[in-house]
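Long-time lurker, first post. I've been practising inverse folding by hand and with some scripts of my own, and I keep getting stuck on stretches where the structure tokens seem ambiguous. Below is the full token string for one chain I'm working on. Before anyone asks, I'm not after the true native sequence, just a reasonable design that respects the backbone. If someone could post their per-position residues I'd love to compare against what I wrote down in my notebook.
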């Protein structure tokens, strides 16, 4: 028997027309839902991001279990949508009297965790194939993702950097925090040369492109850094600058000398 047909849960059944808001993004969770028939739209930041139409599907379960606010709205989409609405204050009795419910909820969460883990693993594999160093940070600037190219470029393994503050790799941490302040204001930086405190090469320069990751409300959820070695380029530019500074006094002297010679030559021709 499907859990939504269990006799002990039928008193929680409801039917609503299309356009009914069952869950509001940002509100405190006070119930858990199970779809019986119909369809639902999941909306975040005013945009539809998902559709629920499978009978027996749980929704709103994480906020219900964790006691947090809803991270999305759920709105009925079919002309008539039937569902179970299980309130918080009935949870303990339901757990005790209907063990099948707890088992089905556990299976649902396990499946979603498996899917999320598979997606994260696939994303990590994709990043590992990138030629550039890709780093993802949490809102506190701690490392969430660190691909193979990052290991090679920065000289630190994923095991060493996982959960660590990213500022530790920069030679001038105060300068890096100034850069982060600019980044938060502009949301993205197309290219910035940053000096890295490399464990085996003393230091290197990395050309870094960065973007702030925000949710629909504008809250920072993390940062994405993509970098490549710019040490050779930076070294050549510094040599060019030094050469230019060395040549400038000589060129200025030659210009003055040429001007004097021209002036002397004109005077000579005019018989002055």
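-- Answer (accepted) --
I ran through it position by position. Result:
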């Amino acid at each position: 028997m499907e859990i939504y047909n269990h006799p002990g849960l039928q008193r929680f059944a409801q039917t609503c027309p299309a356009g009914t808001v069952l869950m509001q993004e940002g509100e405190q969770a006070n119930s858990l839902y199970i779809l019986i028939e119909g369809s639902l739209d999941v909306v975040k930041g005013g945009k539809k991001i998902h559709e629920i139409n499978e009978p027996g599907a749980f929704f709103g379960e994480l906020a219900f279990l964790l006691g947090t606010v809803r991270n999305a709205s759920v709105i009925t989409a079919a002309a008539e949508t039937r569902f179970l609405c299980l309130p918080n204050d009935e949870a303990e009795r339901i757990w005790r009297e209907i063990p099948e419910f707890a088992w089905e909820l556990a299976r649902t969460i396990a499946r979603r965790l498996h899917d999320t883990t598979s997606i994260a693993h696939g994303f990590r594999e994709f990043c590992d194939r990138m030629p550039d160093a890709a780093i993802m940070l949490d809102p506190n600037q701690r490392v969430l993702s660190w691909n193979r190219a990052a290991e090679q470029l920065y000289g630190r393994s994923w095991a060493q950097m996982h959960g660590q503050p990213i500022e530790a790799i920069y030679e001038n941490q105060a300068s890096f925090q100034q850069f982060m302040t600019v980044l938060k204001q502009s949301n993205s930086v197309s290219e910035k040369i940053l000096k890295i405190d490399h464990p085996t090469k003393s230091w290197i320069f990395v050309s870094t492109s960065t973007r702030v990751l925000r949710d629909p409300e504008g809250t920072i959820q993390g940062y994405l850094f993509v970098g490549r070695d710019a040490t050779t380029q930076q070294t050549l530019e510094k040599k060019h600058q030094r050469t230019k500074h060395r040549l400038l006094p000589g060129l200025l002297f030659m210009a003055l000398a040429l001007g004097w010679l021209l002036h002397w030559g004109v005077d000579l021709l005019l018989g002055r």
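A couple of notes from the structure itself: The domain at 130-233 is CATH 3.30.450.20 (Beta-Lactamase). DSSP finds seven helices and 13 strands in the chain. Happy to go over any region you disagree with.
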